[in-house]
Amino acid sequence: MTSILDFFTKLIDPSGFMPRWKCGRWDNLQGWTYILSDINIGISYLAIPLMIFLFIRRRKDFPYTRVLALFCLFIVFCGLSHIADAVMFWFPIYRLNALILAITAIVSTATVVVLYKILPKALSLKSPAQLQVIIEEQTKELKNSNEKLRESEAQFKALVNHNKDIITLFGSDLTYKFVNDSLGFFSNTDLSFYIGKTPEEVLPEHPHTEMFVNTLKAVLIKKETITYEIESTTELKGQGYFKVEMIPLFNNEGGVESVLTITKDITSIRKNEIELTANIDRLHKLSKRLEYKRNVLQDFAYIVSHNLRSPTGNLISLRDLYSRTKDQESKEDLLLKLFSVAEQLSNTVQNLSEVVNINQSFEIHKDELSFEKVLQNLMISLSAEITSSQASITYNFSACESISYPKMYLESILLNLLTNAIKYSSPERKLSVSFITRKEDNGLIILECADNGMGLDLKKYGSKVFTLNKTFHHNSDARGIGLFITKHQIKSLGGSIAIESEPNKGAKFIIKFNEIETL
Questions:
Q1: Is 259 a member of any domain?
Q2: What is the CATH number of the domain that holds 447?
Q3: Residue 380 belongs to some domain of the structure
Q4: Do 315 and 343 form a contact (C-beta atoms < 8 A)?
Q5: Span 316-369, pLDDT tens digits
Q6: Where in the sequence is the domain holding 469, given as residue range(s)?
Q7: Residue 245: which residues within 8 A CB-CB, separation 6 or more?
Q8: Whether residue 57 sits in one domain with residue 192
Q9: Which of 228, 239, 318, 386 has the smallest set of CB atoms within 10 Å of its CB?
């Protein structure tokens, strides 16, 4: 232990040793050749690690940096040993040189061990010639792959461009990256104009641009496909219906790097659906009309049974009495009663015939009729009754001036409304009758006829107003047929009629001409 301590404390102490010039017979040529050679070797050894360090610094991908580091240490200590050997010609630092040699031995041994371990791997490395062959093979494969990729891309573009749907690709910055040729069927704009631009830049004034951009943003955020339908106007094809599907395309990290949009022209499909819906609606209305007619015929059977039973029974009874009566005066009296009952029966049959004619008319020719002209013609025909009753008749058809309707039906409806107003006018005041029309947003045409006549107690008679042979005042000419026929004329063409009235305050009739749903 003492010798080791003494070795390190006297590491550069030359005592006990003589300079190398004094050991042996050195002449200047031998000595300086030895010294200069050692110094040159030492400096060269120290320069080599510097070169290796610069190499490692620039080639950080070199796989064996540990080995190079050991080589650097080994060469550094070899260089130091040569320099120390040259210095000892003047300063005999044998102890320091011994330490340098010992460290050099340790480092060299470690280098040998590491080299032994990596030698199989180093031997497996390809030679430049082998690497050149591999590069050439891979270059050829890459070239073939690129050619196949170009062919696939050309096939894909041909497939996409021949697709009738509009296909576009948007980047995450919401700019067009690709547009297929189908867009040219809807717009005259050159397709290259779209690339690199946003939808706002391409179609700044289009009403659906904002919705389109907002949906693109939603796809990028939600990372899911969004589909919606719009009705839009295009430059070349005008108004149409379109189904837009936006599909997110993901990168390797799971983020959305682009959005594929497929816009399908569904105009023909939507028009067919609209037409189908309209046909279904027409069939539904037709079904209601048929159901109404069936109910009318059923009611008509009851009416016929009820209204004909009484007069025919009376005729049979009077006939039997007439055949059994011997008195001539009584026979004449019975004969007058027979004539009266027969006349009543004839009137009943005539009324029922009118109802039958209405219900047998399934499709009646319609004309475009002016409410004002029809009413004025009726007012001329009824001028005597109007003058006699001193009636004031006003109308306002500005909201809806005309209607497509059977002429005889409209004339009959207005005639019954007008004659009823005159027939049931109040003796307490001058008769006033007004006609007005309205048209609702859904196309429903409404006619209102209001008067200030005698009116009706609807709580008492409301359910009987439009029934056959029902009268509610003591007028001698009342038959109870007019409103019944009017109702059936209106309802046979898909409309409805209602009444608002109070006793001695007049009545208002409200006719909805094309409200088939009320049946």
A1: yes
A2: 3.30.565.10
A3: yes
A4: no
A5: 776 777 778 877 777 777 677 667 666 656 655 665 565 555 555 555 678 899
A6: 367-518
A7: 225, 226, 227, 261, 262, 263, 264
A8: no
A9: 239
